[in-house]
Design brief:
Layout: H1 18-34, H2 37-69, H3 73-86, H4 91-103, H5 107-120, H6 127-153, H7 157-160, H8 163-170, H9 175-181, H10 186-193, E1 201-205, H11 212-222, E2 228-232, H12 236-247, E3 256-259, H13 261-264, H14 271-280, E4 286-290, H15 300-306, E5 312-316, H16 322-325, E6 341-349, H17 351-360, E7 366-372, H18 376-383, E8 389-392, E9 423-427, H19 436-445, E10 452-457, H20 465-468, E11 479-484, H21 488-494, E12 504-508, H22 513-521, E13 529-535, H23 541-553, E14 561-567, H24 572-579, E15 586-590, H25 597-606, E16 614-618, H26 625-632, E17 637-641
Parallel strand pairs: 1-2, 2-3, 3-4, 4-5, 5-6, 6-7, 7-8, 8-9, 9-10, 10-11, 11-12, 12-13, 13-14, 14-15, 15-16, 16-17
Helix pairs in contact: 1-2, 2-3, 2-4, 3-4, 4-5, 4-6, 5-6, 12-14, 14-15, 17-18, 21-22, 22-23, 23-24, 24-25, 25-26
Length: 642
């Protein structure tokens, strides 16, 4: 909000009920005592005048000024305009409107409102309001004079700056502030419209604006500059307008489009314009679309056939993918090979269903599937030789994007990256034991290139791991998350004995923590980040003590971050040994039934001379708030939840 200079501060005052109450008492007296109908008419008219000319105006004035202090200019001006509508000959509404404009730095508009009030307002014929209206009239004259002086003396710093410097400043504004700049002056309007940096990323949302219609008027002026557009609104008019802009090639620089489930509701009337818009927007490379439960959708095939430049597609539906997939058996892939990243979320994804599409896009390097069955893994392994990132029903919602090395297609063999999956998330989800065989085959095939592996597989005695997967050794692994079958966990961990690249290990739902620690103690280099959760065995505390003692004694294995969650083996003694690890920066303790306030205090006392920066304690019933207060006085950041 700009400095007003001439504007007075908002006048938020209490409502004066006495004049209205007096008018009502006179009316009641005329009705009960005198029973004179002419007098009743006069008294009722006086009460109505008092209600509209004073009470209603005061309420609107108070709300208008309250809106203005919250940055809601349009709402404030709307209330001021209603005041003028109720009392067009009173100066109160004009004064309110002008003062609000002046508060926002719109001095020209303020002067126009002051002049309008001076020309249209007249003295009141009612004694109870005449004095107040006269005071407002005098305020109009005084405020107008100050506004004129302030407008004549002001310096527009932005207008005097070099264009490049002004654009650099304007590009840092929020979308709402950039829209406001359009109405400051003609100079600002020209600067902000030509400032490409201010409009590269635009969001149309019900939750970020109080006046979507006004915001759409702003957006329509700058659509040629938009590079990234997010549509998150239930307003069908706004959606139709933007789809039409795509169809008519007005979004000439659009590179990324995101359409949420809220926007896709009842989208059938606009599907034709949307499909044509995808065809006309030749610069579009990234598309994220969520149809949710909506049955009116555009199929995957239609999207891919309409957007020849598309490299990154994310498609979500709660329905069966068969209904929205489209027919890829007749696909003509000549000249269309740009898609390298695909994310699909559906109720059910089967192997035969997705195999036809994968055959059409063998160049895909990133594939994320939610809701897929185990038979999908065979199709992926067969038809995507260039795959670098693959997630099947992943735990995490954030799967890493492709890196530069994943896109390297150099003819130089030394510069070309080693073929194989670099990031792999595999979660059985369905619980079927047959899932483990194709999943393990995929892991084994990519063992030399895997850097990130998140795996959750059911128990399966048919795997015969050591016989079917000899010389299993993951040499490049950095981030490992393990959960599921007890025979798979030690098999994978034993492959890490000579690995020196592992920096993060997350172990979940293991029957015995002692087995996990045994393999960790044999490793040449321990991970710097350790997460252990959902272990029900209470006999593993000595194993944890051994592990933390090794971290304490070996400077080459610094432990920086640790999470212990739902671990029956963790008690106060284990925490005391853990606190001796001087390299720790963050400790997270969650749902630990055997940890008390004494254990937390030991951590705090041991870490006073260490590097511990953050301590998180959640759902530990034997930990009281007093020790948390003590911890907050010693550690930089402490988070506590009962």
């Amino acid at each position: 909000m700009a400095d007003s200079g001439a504007a007075s501060q908002p006048r938020i005052h209490k409502i004066r009920l006495a004049p209205y109450q007096t008018a009502v008492r006179n009316l009641n007296k005329a009705i009960v005592v005198r029973k004179s109908f002419p007098q009743i008419i006069d008294m009722a008219s006086a009460a109505l005048d008092e209600l509209f000319n004073t009470q209603m105006l005061e309420l609107l004035e108070i709300r208008a000024y309250a809106y203005s202090t919250q940055g809601k200019l349009y709402s404030a001006i709307a209330d001021a305009q209603r005041m003028i509508g109720y009392a067009p000959t009173s100066s109160i509404g004009y004064l309110c409107k002008a003062n609000i404009y002046a508060m926002y730095g719109y001095q020209i508009r303020a002067i126009e409102a002051y002049d309008e009030g001076l020309n249209r307002s007249t003295a009141s014929s009612h004694p109870c309001t005449a004095i107040y209206h006269q005071w407002c009239h005098e305020q109009l004259e005084d405020a107008r004079a100050k506004a004129v002086t302030h407008n004549d003396n002001r310096i527009d710093i932005i207008a005097k700056l070099p264009v490049k410097v002004a654009h650099s400043i304007l590009a840092r504004l929020s979308q709402a502030s950039a829209g406001t700049c359009l109405y400051v002056s003609n100079v600002w309007r020209k600067l902000i419209i030509n400032c490409a940096g201010a409009w590269e990323d635009v969001v149309v949302s019900d939750s970020t604006t109080n006046n979507l219609r006004a915001e759409m008027l702003v957006i329509l002026k700058i659509v040629p500059l938009i590079k990234c557009l997010t549509i998150d609104t239930s307003n069908t008019e706004a959606r139709s307008t933007l789809f039409l802009a795509m169809k008519t090639k007005k979004l000439a620089k659009l590179q990324s489009l995101k359409m949420t489930e809220l926007t896709s509701r009842n989208v059938r009337p606009d599907l034709t314009n949307f499909s044509n818009g995808l065809w006309q927007t030749t610069t579009l490379t990234t598309l994220t679309i969520d149809f949710g439960d909506n049955e009116d959708v555009i199929t995957l095939r239609d999207i891919l056939s309409s957007s020849s430049a598309l490299t990154d597609l994310s498609y979500s539906t709660n329905g069966h993918l068969y209904d929205v997939f489209g027919d890829f058996t007749t696909w003509n892939s000549d000249g269309i090979s740009s898609l390298i990243s695909l994310q699909v979320k559906s109720g059910i994804i089967t192997g035969p269903m997705i195999e036809a599409m994968l055959q059409c896009f063998p160049q895909i390097r990133r594939l994320v599937l939610y809701g897929c069955q185990f038979c999908v893994l065979d199709a992926v392994a067969t038809h995507l030789p260039n795959l670098r990132v693959f997630a099947c029903n992943p735990f995490s919602k954030h799967i890493p994007a492709l890196e530069t090395k994943d896109l390297n297609s150099s003819d130089n063999e030394e510069a070309r990256p080693q073929e194989g999956i670099r990031v792999l998330h595999v979660n059985h989800q369905t619980g079927r034991t047959t899932f483990g065989i194709p999943a393990m085959q995929l892991i084994y095939k990519s063992m030399e290139t895997l850097e990130v592996l998140h795996v959750d597989m059911p128990a399966n005695n048919q795997l015969h791991l050591r016989r079917n997967y000899p010389h299993f050794d993951m040499k490049s692994i950095r981030n490992l998350t393990l959960s599921g079958a007890p025979e798979i966990l030690p098999f994978i961990l034993q492959s890490l004995r000579e690995t020196g690249t592992l920096t993060s290990l997350d172990v979940r739902c293991v029957p015995s923590i002692m087995t996990i620690v045994l393999y960790l103690l044999r490793m040449r280099r321990l991970p710097a980040e350790l997460r252990i959760s959902d272990t029900k065995c209470s006999q593993g505390h000595f194993a944890l003590v051994q592990l933390f003692q090794k971290y304490e004694s070996e400077s080459l294995n610094p432990l920086q971050n640790i999470l212990l969650e739902s671990c029956a083996s963790v008690n106060d003694f284990v925490l005391e040994i853990l606190a001796r690890v001087g390299t720790l920066r963050q400790i997270i303790l969650n749902d630990l039934k055997n940890v008390t306030s004494s254990g937390i205090k030991r951590i705090v006392n041991k870490s006073r001379n260490g590097n511990l920066e953050k301590l998180v304690v959640k759902r530990c019933p034997s930990v009281n708030s007093e020790v948390i207060l003590y911890a907050k006085s010693k550690i930089q950041e402490v988070v506590y939840e009962q």
